[in-house]
Amino acid sequence: MAIRQIRTLGDDILRKECKPVKEISRRTKQLIEDMFETMYEANGVGLAAPQVGILKQIVVIDVEDGNQYVLINPEILEQEGSQTGPEGCLSVPGKHATVTRPAYVKVRALDENLEEYELEGEELLARAICHECAHLRGELYVDVMEGELMDNEEEEEEA
Ligand code: ZN
Question: What pLDDT was estimated at residue 156?
């Protein structure tokens, strides 16, 4: 495993559309392992492949609910309600802003074995799913934030 360099705001790669994954090679498995390691090292709760410079539709999420989610080619099927709160991003280090997201989402994705599954999330998990899926379309939370970027006062969760 290896820590990968996290691309930050201003890097063009964060603005590109990611391609769907068609097969899981050894390189892809390595990428997924590295993404988890990179995310944990940076104290994040989610990371998308373009954040480490790879334009593939791969997301990893760990909101400390006891699961390590791998979402490949994710597609949001349903969303309900709304939640407004602080959101950060490992690609915008040291900052956060207020972002409104759905309170609930249901997503369909492939796991690391290309098995299809559905995942439902509320609260932080719903926020993380929406945030990471947006990365795959080249979108960042700064595009949809309310007000200005604020400096983090202490360790805040970033995705
Ligand atoms: Zn992010």
Answer: 64
Ligand 1 center to residue 131 CA distance, Å?
6
Identify the active-site residue in 33, 64, 132, 139.
Answer: 132
Task: Tell me how far the alpha carbon of residue 93 is from its chain's centroid.
Answer: 14
User: For 99-109, what is the mean pLDDT?
Assistant: 98
Average pLDDT on 155-159 reads 69
Name the pTM for this structure: 0.95
For residue 132, indicate whether it is catalytic. yes
Among 14, 16, 24, which residue's Cα sits nearest to residue 113? 24
Q: Around ion ligand 1, which residues have CB less than 5 A away?
A: 89, 159
CA of 124 to the centre of ligand 1 (A): 13
